[in-house]
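quick one: coenzyme A bound model?
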Amino acid sequence: MILRERPVPDSTPPQFPLAIQYCIRVAIRSDVRKLEWYGSHSHTRRYIERAFVDMTKGRQLMLVADINGFPVGQIYMQFDSKNKQHADGRSRGYIYSFRVIGHLQGLGIGTRLLRTAEIELARRGFRYAVLQVSKRNEAARRLYHREGYLVIDEDPGQWSFVDHNGMERHVDDPTFVMEKRLAPSL
Ligand SMILES: CC(C)(COP(=O)(O)OP(=O)(O)OC[C@H]1O[C@@H](n2cnc3c(N)ncnc32)[C@H](O)[C@@H]1OP(=O)(O)O)[C@@H](O)C(=O)NCCC(=O)NCCS
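yep, here:
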């Protein structure tokens, strides 16, 4: 039998609503591989693993946005750092590795992750949230401005990391350093 495809009418296909529940929670061990997002972020494997180990030692916190057990968004907080402008273990906490999986961007998940990270920092007594954003990333900068972050400094953004294949990768991406004064936690 030969199946012939019907000609597709030149109009928008029917649209169906989809309501999705998600939660924001602390990352667990089984998230670590999933956070590579099917290979698109495998190059950050060591980063993710190190953040998780640091979290078990109380030095960091990793939050994920979870849909059906899969982490579709992430944000990490570092409590102390060599760079005391970023994090000093007391007053300033550093937010990094903030991202939402591509097809779920622009739906409010990132804003909620960011606000939850700020609450977690404030709960631990931090008075400022600090982050860096690429000078080229205008969309993220818009989000940070809207959420009350101000530029306090610039950084040449030159650093290196070792990827999942053991290759050293160099990053050359100038950034703005931004901070937000956090409302004290009740
Ligand atoms: C930045 C990011 C985490 C925000 O999460 P999100 O769930 O898309 O954000 P929300 O839906 O809560 O808010 C939307 C706002 O985020 C910003 N944004 C940044 N990148 C965006 C993207 N690719 N798609 C949609 N919004 C984006 C915009 O300001 C947008 O507001 P707008 O409607 O005025 O353009 C996410 O878009 C992302 O992962 N982007 C790629 C990685 C990245 O740039 N991370 C930040 C590094 S500093």
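Strands lie at 23-26, 60-67, 70-78, 92-100, 128-134, 150-155, 158-162, 168-172, 175-181.
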